[in-house]
Amino acid sequence: MKRRLLLVSNSTVHGGGYLEHCQQQIKDFFGPQVKRILFVPYALHNQDSYTKTARDKLKTLGYEVDSVHEAADPVEAVRQAEGIFIGGGNTFRLLKALYDHNLVTEIKNRVLQDGVPYMGSSAGSNVATVSINTTNDMPIVYPPTFSAIGLVPFNINPHYLDPDPNSKHMGETREQRILQYHEEPDTPSVLGLREGSMLLVEGNQATLLGSTKLYLCKSPLTAEPETLRQH
Amino acid sequence: MKRRLLLVSNSTVHGGGYLEHCQQQIKDFFGPQVKRILFVPYALHNQDSYTKTARDKLKTLGYEVDSVHEAADPVEAVRQAEGIFIGGGNTFRLLKALYDHNLVTEIKNRVLQDGVPYMGSSAGSNVATVSINTTNDMPIVYPPTFSAIGLVPFNINPHYLDPDPNSKHMGETREQRILQYHEEPDTPSVLGLREGSMLLVEGNQATLLGSTKLYLCKSPLTAEPETLRQH
């Protein structure tokens, strides 16, 4: 399988600039052969402003950015893309827009069949997985399904947070939420990507990159996640 | 309108017992005329255990508990109920189960037409409102819609949290999430109920009870929330 993915937990680490903590990994991932990256800004409301942020940053790394929201035909833009980057924001809004624009199957085909490199950040990492059932976001819009692009056989929880033993807040911890998910039938394993980390998927191998460790909540029922190396 | 609601932010305050912080308000709300309360445990996976917890606690306040999950006919159980209490847990799981059992319209009719008192806690407060678009929960199952019972013309965010200026976590604050919701068209106002607080709705008047203040995010477009007194 040609699949190549870079799934980033979050675009900005505390105190750093946009995509600053993962800029070397981005350059290594897209490499010198990719010249133009198709950006998908659907997760935020102001898509022009979001595109400018991504365009300015990726320009400093040597890449031109086309935004799918500026394309006359978004499906055709995906068909022509050399590389794809789906930015973070609200996962429900993002997934709904991907379905509204008929891009889910198109992106899947491009990545799995044609080997187009796919980078996602936060919500953009969620939609690359089996489903968005393990997003942290508020369900501000109703997508036609929670099933996502399905580029990998597991789910991700980005911005993963360890329980805070000193907290007096009574909302469920992140781990409790993921365990509640696994009470439901036929749920895949969940990889908690702490802020600062990212998952590089090449073919059938996944490698954890970045400054933090992974939290892995294996499915009680179904497929194991793929081979995983933590550097 | 006969409507009477007690919408509690959370069932347990840090360091306290189940429903302990609101037990006086529960007694005042259901009063001596209600003898039996219909409990809805759908938000948690172990409904037997959850029912026992609610039953034991409400017994100490003078109320017998019937659980809807023990009823041969849940719709008939709602039709016969003197009072309804929907407990917290996962809001998506709860709303899906309410639809699966055809209880949404039935509960709405009982509360708005017959004046049956309705108490909700956390997820049980979310489903009493316009929609579950402002829940904090993880979307572990896919309900047929995010529209909820609609007993009030606004939404609630339970367990409301103020932004923590010292946090290094880069996930959106609660306020940012609610503001993202209001970027979408035709969204109602959102009442953030901090832990320890609850909203008493009687007819067209809402009163804040408990130990914490309300966070109110008015809709940019649509109806104002009702008259609100903060005690």
From TrEMBL, chains A, B:
Coiled-coil intervals: none
Protein name, as recorded: dipeptidase E
Cellular compartments annotated: Cytoplasm
NCBIfam families found in the cross-reference section: PRK05282.1
UniProt xrefs under PANTHER family: ALPHA-ASPARTYL DIPEPTIDASE (PTHR20842:SF0), PROTEASE S51 ALPHA-ASPARTYL DIPEPTIDASE (PTHR20842)
UniProt keyword list: Cytoplasm, Dipeptidase, Hydrolase, Protease, Serine protease
Family of this protein: Belongs to the peptidase S51 family.
SUPFAM superfamilies in alphabetical order: Class I glutamine amidotransferase-like
